[in-house]
Design goal:
By secondary structure, the protein is mainly alpha-helical. The longest helix has 31 residues. The protein is elongated. The chain has a three-stranded antiparallel sheet with strand order 3-5-4. A two-stranded antiparallel sheet has the order 1-2.
């Protein structure tokens, strides 16, 4: 089980994207969930090595300590899965996580990695983890999910849903969407026409 969580954690850490069932999200909170999932097996491995190195002369003590490490690893697996679920799914009644995990949890939905768009000399790149203003994104020809959400006046999840439903064409580069402003203008025209 710990090996499976190690692999899942490594994939989440590398891709920074989670898409399973009704949960679709991306960003540093997914990366943090990946690290949390990798900790139990990594910690147990390191402790097992240290026990083998320092107590190799007393095999009964080694067996006892390895059983304690195994029990601690099992408890850590349950805790890691719970914390990763809170970070990825962000349920409404979830407890606030302590420390840096709490800071990451508080930022869920407000930040997503920003791709490097094609730029004209008049556009400037929006710093990562900062929500751009509509004025900043209007001159861009290619936008990230974050920028497209600002441009359309929607949430990032709504933009991803439009992409997944095939209503908004988007290209993927390194697990991040790139959306042409012309496609966003079509969405705005369609939305305006429906309101009339």
């Amino acid at each position: 089980m710990a090996l499976i969580l190690l692999i899942i954690g490594a994939v989440l850490f590398y891709t920074e994207r989670f898409n399973l069932g009704g949960i679709q999200t991306q960003g540093r909170h997914v990366k943090a969930a990946g690290v949390v999932l990798m900790l139990p097996s990594t910690g147990a491995f390191i402790l097992s090595l240290l026990i083998g190195l320092f107590f190799s002369s007393d095999m009964d003590l080694v067996y006892t300590l390895l059983q304690v490490v195994s029990l601690a690893e099992t408890l850590a697996i349950f805790a890691a899965v719970a914390i990763a679920y809170i970070l990825v799914a962000n349920p409404a009644n979830a407890p606030h996580l302590p420390g840096i995990l709490g800071q990451i949890q508080a930022g869920i939905g407000t930040e997503h990695p920003v791709t490097t768009p094609q730029r004209t000399p008049t556009t400037a790149r929006t710093p990562q983890n900062v929500t751009p203003t509509r004025d900043q994104v209007q001159s861009k020809r290619i936008m990230s999910v974050n920028e497209a959400a600002v441009y359309l006046g929607m949430t990032e999840i709504q933009v991803i849903q439009l992409i997944d439903e095939g209503k908004l064409p988007a290209a993927r580069a390194n697990y991040r969407y790139q959306i042409a402003r012309s496609q966003l203008d079509e969405i705005l025209k369609t939305r305006d026409a429906e309101l009339v």
